[in-house]
Queue: 2 jobs
Job 1
Amino acid sequence: MRWVCIVVFGVIMVWALESSAQARESTAFRVSLITGAGFLSDSANTLTPDSMTSLSVQHRFTAQNRLSNQFPTWVKLKIPPGIPPGEYCTTTRVEEIIHLYLFRSGETVHQQNGRNTPPSTRSVPRRFMNICFSIHPTDSVIYLRVDPIQGDAQPLAIFLEQKADVDALIQTNSHLSFFITGGLLIIFLTSLTLFLFLGDRNYMWFCLYLFCMYFMVNGQFLSFYFGETFPRLFLNSAANQLYFVFAPLSLLWFAFSFFDIRKKSLGWKRAFISLMIFSLVCIITIPVNLTLNSNLILLYNIVSVLTIAVYAGVAFFRQNFQPARYFLFSFAAPVLVALLIVANEMGWLTVTGLNLLAGVSFLLQSLILSLGVVTQYQQVHEELMKITFTKMQQERETEIFKSQNNELLVRNVTIESQKMEIEEQASKLAELNGTKDKLLSVLSHDLRGPVGNLSSVMSLLKSKHLSQEEFQRVSEHLRLDVDTTYKMLEEVLHWVTSQQQGIVPNPVVFHVETLVEEVIQLASLAAAKHIRIEAGDLREALVRADRDHIRIILRNLVNNAIKFSPDHSTIRINVTPEEHHIRISVADQGPGISAERVERLLRGDKIESTRGTKGEKGTGLGLLLCRDFIQYNHGVFFISSTEGKGTTISFTLLRADNVV
């Protein structure tokens, strides 16, 4: 893009230099008509071309060179001596309508021109600053009628040139106007396309500035081609004034967006917004007072350009904003042309082709600004990419940190869980070790007596010192000791098996009645204590559970009831059907269990074994085995006891008809 703009810039410079050279060559003949000129302000607006020859009017002409901004001004110009007859043109920078009159032996020649006159009525359609006419040998005086000018009253500068030179200059200007229009159209369409594809608003505001500036600079070119069709846009003084307001206003908007003033200091933001608001004042004064409006617009243009130029310099040199240099360079050519126009107006220099130079300077400014827009977009895009990349990198690092943190959290949870498991296992192991030590102590103490008694009885039998009656009594006592010892060993064996291998139930469907009868028959201690065991109606008690587990449960519960029941008492075994379960309960008439001991039993805590009513010993594992076996068979363990009134221990099993 930059190389394209540089090439176009070179072509424009060469074209401008050649056109300026041709213009200087074509205007070799150029004579001022102000010498000896007379001026008359028609304050009553009553003078006509016919009245110019009267002596009363002639005496009113003065040498004061001043064009009125309130009334028409009549100008009397003398044709310099030595001017040969031919086709000539007057040239002036006045944009208001000028009427030219020549009086030849009763004939009045009339020509007119001006910016706001339709091209078809102009003396020179393509150029409103010239009025072309023929000079005859008898012609000596030219009369001009100038409409009230816009702005302050000012002197008139008017020259006489050969028509051929003017035509050549017009042709050159026309070619360059087409060239400028084509170049600006390319820049406009390119910028518009970039805006549509990139979405950068700088390109949109730049397009608006090109559009407004083109209307302001190339008004003469546009009025020739479109004045007849759109007179209100191109042949209207108010419309022309608006172009001189919209151009700097669009430049302010463009600079406001280009430098991103919204994010800058509050002072600069207020300055730009104040100038934008001031444009409304200029617009309001257009229908009120064109003269006042012209002065305001001139001030508005100067202040706007200076504000933007100063801010561009500040942004470039202090803020190190590289695209700002394009703004600085872009104002070089327009400022130079503006100085030439001022010098030409003040009469310090005589410069031809100022409109041509103004168009070229605008095209150059547009090219340089387009480079600035591209550079600004690249810089902002690069900064945005850096910020995006940095943000993505930070987000990635954050994600990595979060992932690592999550892994640490998971590890901590795992470690904490393992720690709790280890602590729980350690606690269980400590409890098991304590139970094991106790069991060894119990077994070593409790088994010594029965085994010693058995050894003594065997010795007596061998020596034949026992009578038949004594043998019957001793053998009955020995049988009770052996039964008690067998039950203790059986409880220990079941407990050790459950702790080492785990409890794996094998559920089957069976009647509780047969199992209860079997357990009652094996309860030999009940007869010794004269305890009656009663069973309720068990015919409907069909359950699904592990038969061996339930046998151990019932045996333990019945033996416990016998152990803690007084002589001549009753133990009741009842079965109660429920909605989904069968409740089996064993009730005795023993001393009962304290509430604290019941809570510990239900919780599964290991407790000390308690001797029975006849001093029966135990391991303290019976009820714990019952509780575990009931839970493994999907049942619930209950203990209901009142001290001094007996205990009822019950549990539930799944009904066989309710198992899917």
Job 2
Amino acid sequence: EAYPSCTVTNVQFCFDVRKLMKLDAERRKAMKGRLYFTTKAQKEGKIMIKTHPCARIFCCRFCGFEQVDAEQYYGELEEKLTDEFNAERNRITLKRLDMAFVTFQDERMTAVILKDYSHIRCRKHPQQSSVTTVVKSHHWGVCYAPAPSDIIWENLSVRGTSWWVRFILLNICLFVLLFFLTTPAIIVNTMDMFNVTQPVESLKNPIITQFFPTLLLWAFSVFLPFLVYYSAFLESHWTRSSENQLTMHKCFFFLVFMVIILPSLGLSSLDLFFRWLFDTHFLDEANIKFQCVFLPDNGAFFVNYVVTSSLIGTAMELLRIPGLLVYTARLCFAKSEPERLHVKRSQAYQFQFGLEYAWTCCIFSVVMTYSITCPIIVPFGLLYMLLKHMVDRYNIYYVYIPTKLSQRLHVAAISQVMVAPILCMFWLLFFSVLRLGPTRPVTLFTFVVLLSCIIFSFFGLCLKKLQPRKPSSYQMSDQSEGAFNDVERSSVSSTPNSNLFVATVLQEPELSLTPAASPAHQSYGTMGNHLEPAEDGEDGGLQSFETELETVEGEYRSGPVMESQARYQ
């Protein structure tokens, strides 16, 4: 009525599916366990299992863990979870959220609506209809929709004031914890108080004594950003692209302060940095000599850091020791053989572009910052970039499952790299002021160049923000089967056009599986599919059921490739 020239082809409302998706994942696991033990009981008879999570760790008989019939246990658990799932699914219409996905006939209509609603910020009301006062359309926020596979459906229920309160509190706690208490320099200084590094220094080996402090800084700088990384999951972002982008920015600026700024200034934490910045009497009391900041030894420290990151850091990414520890813990706490097989098949994760971009930009910034005052760091920076490129390419191809994110994430990473030349000019200016004096022509020229870099970077950033946002261009393609676990299957929506923007858990029919013999599907990033011949008789049942489950899911999950790129509002 308000826009007679625009034709709406589809409207999909959003619902709070957080609990429903959790029940669906648990129901599928219980169903797989029942099917596994049903087949195994036909060959071996009644099977007893211990259902306590710690039963595999404390496996002695004196621990008192009760044994139950495996088939009966998983059958009752599946029935209970199915009843809860169906009840929650029947109540889902009562949990409708105040957002919807609207599909228009063509791109021009979408642009007209978006342009009209973009004027609300300028206190200009959009076109009105007879129900405008009822639905309060002048208060609506309208934007282009992301790709369906990019949406985290379970997080859509966290919005408005609750989301901002959660976001602000989490980041305040993170700021206090990381910057004031647990910077790597503080940890290393604490270790020196207990003479932890004294046995290493007593070796009098120049290779060990030179690289051991650098190795400690690298180890702690690897561990601490993971706190920043995991905090992004608690913030409940609506899309994976925004989650990765915010993680990238937070980790990058944290690493820049932790690896470049604080060690270069000889400060141990941001507490000292802010006191030096704002306290006028701090320099009178503290023993900080800035003439020692830009000595050659300081550059040698960062050369060692880049070499350590190139050789040890990239090798650790190939070993994936944190992932191995998580995988081992999940196997230890699995209650039965079907759950262990499920852990083996669902241990692959998406490639974390945000964290990897932050690391790459940080090392590039280190190399760029000291490229003039310490040129020897440049070849080692090139070595890091080559090794990092090969390792990431291998991991993306063969280790992690396919990741589809918005191109804005990659554009933001390119814009973030502009911090590196600005830091380089800052360091060159500090070097000139301390060594040559503030009135020398070289110092004044460096200051003018630095000011020009900052102005042009800020101007370019403002131009990008003022440009109208373009719609997301994507084509839906068939998802690769066997590469997602149950929770991820519930999050990804890749269905025909009428059901594009609906969580998969709301559109799949009930699955009734029967035992069928089919080979297990091998996909990149999965483990446990190559079994010994002696174990084939025991584990083949569950593998065939999982393969059939994935095949049935794929029929409802995969749609035809769209012939033309669509724009959704």
